[in-house]
Sequence to fold (264 residues):
Amino acid sequence: MQMVAAMALQAQINPTPPASQSLVAWADYWYTASSQFLLAAGVVTAIGACAMVVCFVLQWRAAGIREAQADWLTTNLEAQAAQARKETADVLERVATLNIEAARLQRKNLSLVELVQPRELTGAEAHDVAKALAPYSGRSVTLWSYGFDLEGGALAEQIRQSLIDAHVIVVNNIGQLNANERPRVGVQIAGADEKLVGSLYDGLHAVAGLDAAVVQLGDAKEAADAAPAEIFVGMKPLARRDDEKVAERSAFDERTALAAVATP
Fold:
């Protein structure tokens, strides 16, 4: 204590303060103010940090929602694209079906045109038939057709004229047959004279649309009783079917009974 007291006695007292009263007042004011500013800045910093945390949470949540929305849109777009592809395939299939139906209708229309188009011999075809039969001048050919078939009767008349031009004797039974069963189709040829029958077939088979065919005689007795050659003009065929080919024989088997109604 004595030592401290001695040092205090030795220290000199400075009566002049280091700062004026106004400067001290200024320092006090700004010290207090800066302390308040620091406190406010800390509060603002804390609020900013909280705000940043809230923003991070909001961004995370918003990103999840946006990703889910994007996935939903992608899924829907893919589903719509698949549906569009399916509809396109269905349309193409319908177009293909319509094309097939149009082709079928066109074929049917052509068949109808062919049906209503009468069979006939052109001048050149009639000349070729007469020329092919010229070596058989004076031979006899019997010509048949249905009475109800006007188109077949007209064709039979053309064939008859070609035979006459070839100086073939024609036994005219055009329009003298009636059909007790389903009418036969096409032009059918039979007879005992195979060469004459072959020449008739060659001449008529070359004519488009006549569907000429040879009916073979059954046995020697039938061949002995048969005429040299007979031509049966049936209904106009659309398409030659197997059952019609088989029926060629019966058409000639029926002619004897059917000829009973023919006018002598």
The first helix runs from residue 2 to 10. Strands lie at 140-146, 169-177, 187-190, 212-214, 230-233. Confidence is low (pLDDT under 50) at residues 240-248, 256-264.
